[in-house]
Amino acid sequence: MASTLPTLAIPGQRLGSVSSYSAGPGTHVQNANIYASIAGPVLVDPASSKGVKSTLSVSRGPLRTAGTASSSASQQIPAPKLTSTTSKPGTSKPRYNTLPAVDSIVLARVTRVQKRQATVSILVVQDESSSTSSDNDNIDSILTSAANPENHSNSDELRFQALIRKEDVRAVEKDRVVMDEMFRVGDIVRGAVISLGDQSFYYLTTARNDLGVVMARSEAGNMMFPVSWKEMRDPVTGVAELRKVARPF
């Protein structure tokens, strides 16, 4: 049956039956069949022992690698390790991801702040090991544009949406977190994906020193700079505002 597997898959394409394969990353199961959830090369992770099914997965790597994916499937790295931070010997590491994955570092704009959570729109998925990004290599220009209130529009609805829950904002004194003091609408936040969530939202955490607000404007509209882990200051007015600040690099 392996010979009938497609070389490339598109979202919603049937790949095989659960009686023959196990579903891996980039796939989902429906009506006892395995379907592709994303577009990319189809990979097969051979069974490690007798009686165990081979695993079908769809890679998040560039589509141009698909020509070699099916012919060398038996020599592939196990599917769970096929992320943007790993690559096969002799090949260049993929520069682009299709979707955020667990442990991905993302840059996102805050679009809504509620009592129990903040909603954000993911702008960039970063490769932490090589400082490359999934959407655009020029992160500075993306953030500068995103931090400008004039550029805020319904385009956020077309991006990946995520939630930062109150308990995931910081690692200490979680019960004393006040969301309005951690984030404001328009802030640019660096976060880590902790869960793929449901079909609507990813879940992010900022409970590390290097995660949190990286760019923010004051109530006067000026770009602020961090002065501590919980405070940013307007250089024009001198007024300080509370934030969950990411450690500067």
TrEMBL record:
Show where the Exosome complex component CSL4 C-terminal domain sits. 99-196
Q: Where is the composition biased (Low complexity)?
A: 69-94
A Pfam match = EXOSC1
Q: What is its main location?
A: nucleus
Localization per record: Nucleus, Nucleolus
For whether the record's keyword set contains Cytoplasm, the answer is yes
Presence of the UniProt keyword Cytoplasm in the record: yes
Task: Spell out where the chain crosses the membrane.
Answer: none
Residue ranges, annotated region (Disordered): 53-96
Tell me which GO cellular component terms the UniProt record holds.
cytoplasm; nuclear exosome (RNase complex); nucleolus
According to its UniProt entry, the protein's GO biological process terms are: RNA processing
Q: Which UniProt keywords apply?
A: Cytoplasm, Exosome
Query: A single Gene Ontology molecular function, please?
Result: RNA binding
Q: Which domain of life is it from?
A: Eukaryota
Sequence ranges assigned to domain Exosome complex component N-terminal in this UniProt record: 8-45
For this protein, the record's PANTHER family field holds: 3'-5' EXORIBONUCLEASE CSL4-RELATED, EXOSOME COMPLEX COMPONENT CSL4
Name of the featured protein: Putative exoribonuclease
